[in-house]
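testing teh design pipeline on a random one, pls ignore if ur not involved
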């Protein structure tokens, strides 16, 4: 799942080396915490959150097809 998120996000940003993903897993959910450079946060979120919503849609669809847990994606700088 981390590879999928990186594959989507790295082409969008100016500092791909600053893209980091932390994983927090509980018994019934997984939280992926995406961190990007503060200059790139606007590119990842997009106008009115459209890019972030699209990223979450792809990640959630992949998780629904492959995992049996709830998946959440948090974006921060």
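output:
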């Amino acid at each position: 799942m981390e590879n999928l998120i990186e594959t989507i996000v790295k082409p969008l940003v100016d500092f791909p080396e600053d893209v980091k993903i932390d994983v927090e897993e509980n018994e019934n959910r997984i939280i992926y915490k995406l961190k990007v450079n503060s200059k790139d946060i606007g590119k990842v979120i997009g106008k009115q959150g459209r890019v972030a919503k699209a990223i979450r849609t792809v990640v959630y669809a992949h998780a629904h097809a492959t995992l049996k847990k709830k998946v959440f994606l948090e974006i921060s700088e």
